[in-house]
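User: Hi! I'm working on a homework problem where we have to compare a predicted structure to a textbook description. Could you give me the structure for the chain below?
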Amino acid sequence: MGHISVRRYASRDWSRYAIRNGSGMRSRISASSARARRQLRRLETLVEGLQDDLLTPLTAPEREQLVRLLIRLLDHHGSGPGGPAHA
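Assistant: Happy to help. Predicted structure tokens:
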């Protein structure tokens, strides 16, 4: 979800986000209304279906390996859970 989208959802009272230590970085985004939670469930279902279609040729172990490799790349480039952008 991009920065503009987060603001749009927040303006509709669909989400809230907390700023981490005045850094300007969001540390948590959460659905704040029943309508937002329903929309989130619909989006999650849509994304899961798209992922299943995209990853159909891969076996379960191959999918797990792909996830590990993508996380490793994100970490290396500072965008993953362990990267400097999330410290």
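For your comparison, note the following. The chain has two domains: 1-53, 57-87. The chain has a mean pLDDT of 74. Good luck with the assignment!
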